[in-house]
Structures are given as C-alpha cells and as structure tokens.
Amino acid sequence: MHDDHRTDREPTTTFELLGRLEVRKGGERVDLGPPKQRLVLALLLSRAGSVVPVDRLTEALWEGNPPRTARKNLQIYVAALRKIVGNRIRYVASGYVLDVEPEEFDLLRLERYATAGRRLLRDGDLPGAVAALDGAIRCWHGIPLTEFAGVPIAVNESDRLAARFLSAYEDWAEGQVALGHYAEVLDGIDEVAGRHPFRERLGVAKMTALAGCGRTAEALAYYDEIRQRMARELGIQPSPVLTALYQRILAGQSQPGPGGLSRATNGLPRDLPDFVGRRDELNHLVDLLDAGGPAVDVVVLTGPAGVGKTVTAIRTARRLDGRFADGVMFVPLRARDGRPRPIHEVTVGLLRQLGYSGASPPPGEAVPLWRAWLAERRMLLVLDGAMDEDSVRALLPGLGDSRVLVTSRLKLSGLDAVCRVALAELSTMECLDLLGRMVGAGRVVSDRYAAERLVEQCGRLPLAVRVLGTKLAMLPHIPISRYAERLADDQALFAELAAGDLSVQACLDDWIGSIAPPPRESLRQLACMPRPVFGRDEVVTALGAGTGSVDRTIATLLEASLLFVPDPEVAAHQEMYGMSALLRRYVRALMTAPPRAAAAAAIPARPPEHRPGTGSARPTGP
C-alpha cells in the first residue's frame, strides 16, 4: 500500500481545519464524503506530517468496538480520500501520514507564524514578533473538529489545537501590551477570555490593557471577577503574577516591566561552572523542548547512575528559561535519602509554589488541581529522579503549551509519546578537561599519561572524575601518577571514590540494589565475562538459562541502564551488549572482597515498592 511520494500533487488544493473542516480545489469546496471518511481526514490533518497509527484511527472510528472488516473499511476510506487529495496520504510503519505544505494548510501556517514570532521575541524584535503572531492568530476561524464532538480522540485533538492557538494569542496579546497597543488587545480579547476564563495570561493582558487605556476601575473589577470565579469553581486564589498586577494597578503603577508579562522566578538548583561536554546533547534537548519548536511535550533524559543527568537537565533548563512565559520549575522526585517522594506531597508543594493558599487538598484532588493550573501556563517542568512511570504521568500537563524534561536511570518504557535522550560516559578528552578545571590544567598537562590512567580507572563516569578531582585538589603535593597507582586495586579505588556526601559506592549500591534479586545475580555473572562487550549467545552460556529468561533479564538490565547497546558499528550484524567499565569493576570487587568486607559491602536491595530509580535531587556530575 506504499505510494510514491506525492507524485501527482495538485498545487491548487488547500486544507482548512481551524474552524470547519474543508478541502478546496481551485477555490471550490470539495465533497469529503461520509462522516467516518471525514473523521479519518481530520485526524490525519491534525497530525500532518506524522504517522497516525491504524489502531488510533480504528479506535476513533469505532470507539473500541470495531467490526471484523474495520481495517478493510479504513483502507476504503483512505482510497477515497486519495482520490480527493492525491498521493499525499502514505502508508508508513503501521499507520498513515498526510503530507501537506504550510501554504496549503491553515494549521501549519499558524505554527509557522507562531514559531517565527517566538524566535523574533527571543531576538528582541518585538514589532516583528507581534506582526508574525498576528499572522498566526488570523489563521484561526473557530474551534476545530466540532462535528466530531462525540468522538473522544477528536475532542482531545481539538483541545490540543486550541491550546496552540491560545498560546500564540497570549504571546500576541503580551507583545501588543508591551508595545502600548492597548486598544488592539481589547478589540477581541473578551471573546477569547470568555471561552477560557481561567487562562491567567489572558487576564493579565486584559487587565494591563484596561489600565493602560485609563479604565482602572474596570481592570480592578475584572480581577475581582477572576478571583471570585476561581474561588467558586476551583477553590483556589489567582496566581502571584495576577495578584501582583492587581496590587500595582491599585497603587497606580499599571505599566508592566520589560517584555510585558511578569514571570515566576525559577527554582533551579545551582549550575556547575566547570560543566564540560554534552554540547550535542544540550543542543538536541533545547531543540526538542523549545516552546516554539516541534510538538514534543515530554523528553526523558536517561543514563547510568553518576553520568550527569541532573546537571545536564539544569543546564538545559537555564538555556530555555527565557523561552517560557511562566518560568521553570524544578521538581525533585526523590527525597535526600533516595526514597521516592509521595506524589501527593510533590503535587501539594507545586501548588503552593504557584500561589495556592487554601487548605491542603485531600489525596486524589491535588493532581487534577495541579493539572488545571498547569493547563493555563507555558512552563518548563523538570522532573528529576523519576523512579516509575506513574509518578511522571501524574504530573504531566493534560493540555496547554508546557514542556516536561524528566531525568531517570530508567528508560521509563511505559511512557507513551515521549522522546528519549540517553547520556553515556564522557570522552577521555572531556574527562581531562574536567579534571584540569578542578586541579589545574598545568598539573594535568605535566602528567598527561597518569591523568589519562586516572580517568580511565573512573570509567570516564563524570561523578567519579569529579570526586577524584575534588580529592586531588586538596592534595596538591601528591603527583597524579602516584595517586593513579594507588587506585589500581579495585578495593582501594572504591574506598577513594567518596568526598563529603558524594559517594560513588553509595550511588552504585542504590543503582544495583534497585533491581530484583534474579537480574541482580545475573549482573554479577555478566561482570565476570572476559570482555565488557559480549554477544547474546555468550549471555545465554554465562547465565545457563533458557532464551526466554535471558531475554527478560537483558530487557530488565537495559531498562535500568545497567547494560547498554554498543554503537551500531560495534554491534553490526549481531546482538551485542555492554557493561560500563566502572560498574563492571565494582561488581567484581564485591564478589572478590574478603568475607567480612564482602558482608559489609553487600549490595542492599531496595524495599519491594521501589523500582529502578535515578540520582538524588542534588547535581551529581557535570
């Protein structure tokens, strides 16, 4: 069913989704067929350029009760639509893609204008940004997909598209306010705010515009209207941003600061000034999470314990801070002792930060309340140290234009529709750079060979390099070569890998102890393999288990980042897996320790309710 890619495109065909669903050829409206056929087209358009799975289309068409001929019927609908739109519809990877260009399609034009407007805002060109955003909001002609109001998937798509328009409209309104164009804002904002009474960015724009036009009493009355409605329907108070604006207007200071909308202060932990490497990963994360970039709502940053997920997330968030009107929130999901924080505790804490001042909501009510608040904001949420999918799902926005960056040692494979970015160990050069920043570049250059030995003994793990760098910085009289010799023995190495409350051994204990006993024992056996990279057949031989059991064990260890898949060049044409050098040394050291030392160093298993987790809230690596 794979068609040649758009070989017979008709350039005069246009598509409209932001309002009534329509296709026009040469300006004439085209009959799109029966409702189910129209629904298929609408869903393909709502995700233009992306694969819409057959299962999703089937669910939308028959709502969980498809006939035996469902796939055949879907193929008939697609064939009929191809006669209308040409070979724009392609079958790819168990789904369909509809290819259209921005000049043909109102939704893509809106997104193109909105992206350009936000880029101009970042560049400081406020008039240009407002002009581009004005082009975006002019693409909107009404709520999309209203004819499919009884189809849950279509309703969700409609809400998602409406959120994109609202975000662009709010950017436009704030830009107009910053330019002093108050009348332009007031001409039409009532209709938008009336449909979305809890969008506080709209409230801020309208209040500021009213005050800017000298209509102070109306601005204050509008705030009181918002306050009463939120108290009555949500049981909460307006955010600190809206309340602060009210106080300024009341005091006769109606003008906003530069940029229009006051922003919430971010609560990011301290960034590390000696952060090294990760240039490609940082650029990729910024591109994915940029509020004006691709429609990626959730990014999961994964990797081994001590590899620097938290500090990479913090640096990413700092680069993105100015791109989110409502700021950045950093949310540690683990307590200082490494245990998971109860989700109710986390959610109530978030609500307090956002200005919630009522009584603590009972369990079961905090999460919906949090989502209602988040749906009205454009924020970057950093969820640090996720230990399972449920804790992440509870905090994700259901609607709105916020983005979420999650750090976890787990792949969190149960999360749908997320992008995963994996961190590996640093290169030798990056480790030497980090070490030089901590102990002095001259000291590293003068003993380069020993410094290379040292970072290799650390397995090029950022946390381990940082710990040894800290200790070496306090021992300026000891040559790096002599210190490296001291670490040749495994037991000595892990005794040295601790400085203050930073302990590589504790980090590895927590990491390994987070998995169940059977795969933990398998990890011990794999650490004794003659090479750090091994094939699946070697794993079967080493574990002496059936292939099904081996595959499940490998999947568990991969999920927890305890094993990795080598580069494609290394694993070409065969199934290969690897274990990091430091983890391998640590597991072997435990197995070869003297009996009393081994008992003291035994890897503690987590309580049953724990799953493979990630690092603590404090930054643990560059």
From TrEMBL:
DNA-binding interval(s): 4-100
Q: Name one Pfam family in it.
A: BTAD
Q: Which UniProt keywords apply?
A: DNA-binding, Transcription, Transcription regulation
The record's InterPro entries line, in alphabetical order, gives: AAA_16 (IPR041664), AfsR-DnrI-RedD_regulator (IPR051677), BTAD (IPR005158), OmpR/PhoB-type_DNA-bd (IPR001867), P-loop_NTPase (IPR027417), Sig_transdc_resp-reg_C-effctor (IPR016032), TPR-like_helical_dom_sf (IPR011990), WH-like_DNA-bd_sf (IPR036388)
Fetch the SUPFAM superfamilies from UniProt. Answer: C-terminal effector domain of the bipartite response regulators, P-loop containing nucleoside triphosphate hydrolases, TPR-like
Q: What are the boundaries of the region Disordered? A: 599-622
Q: What highest taxon heads this organism's lineage?
A: Bacteria
UniProt key word Transmembrane: no
Q: Which residues form the OmpR/PhoB-type domain?
A: 4-100
Name the protein family.
Belongs to the AfsR/DnrI/RedD regulatory family.
Official protein name in the record: BTAD domain-containing putative transcriptional regulator
Organism, by scientific name, is: Phytohabitans maris
